[in-house]
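Handout, tutorial session.
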Amino acid sequence: MSSITMARKAFRIIPPRKSPKAAKQLLSYDWPGNVRELQNVVEYAVALATENRIDVDDLPEELRTTIPKPQISGKILSLEEVERNYILTVLEKVGGNKTKAAEALGIGIATLYRKLNSYNS
């Protein structure tokens, strides 16, 4: 029996729930240390949880900063299609302002215009 289980029984503690974001971070992490590392992370998060819920802030730094792996559902797109969709989404998000879109994307305005022109061809 784990130390967490024994402590919960002794003090009649209700196990905390995980927020959806914390669960997503836990599921997207690579877990190089396998089960032992997972157990340590859960114990750490339970100890830091201020409410009856584990949030991303309760996870160790290396898990909080892990970028979740992209999930592929449906058709696999080419890199060109992904880039096109992303550029058009960013452009939409900045209200069609091409200068702001280029800045957000980290590309020059001429590059953005060239890419947009190629999408219309």
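The second record follows below. Compare its token runs with those of the first.
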Amino acid sequence: MKTETREEMWNLNFPKKTALPEKPFWKGNAPEEGTGGLSVQDLLDPSYPDPIRQAIDRLDKLGYDVGGLWDQYLAMKWNLKANAAVFREILDLARTKASAFGSGDGYSLP
């Protein structure tokens, strides 16, 4: 992990570009408006820049009490991971069910 310079640590500006992943999950069909074009896959990708985490970390290093922010951030991240796992399981079940009925595409249910 790269050590931030003093100037970077005091920089609390996080424009939209800081939230953009290097390789977005959505190639052309971005999700609905209001998501900033980010998908759950982007947010959970270990290479995601995670500006919220960076902001909380910088505030912490500057001496602010960020315990409540960390609790909320970690709870949201944990719940996002848990929900993504549930949705993957539902999709896998739907594919299995569709395959059993011979629909061929793996998504359609009879």
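Points raised in discussion: The radius of gyration is 19 Å.
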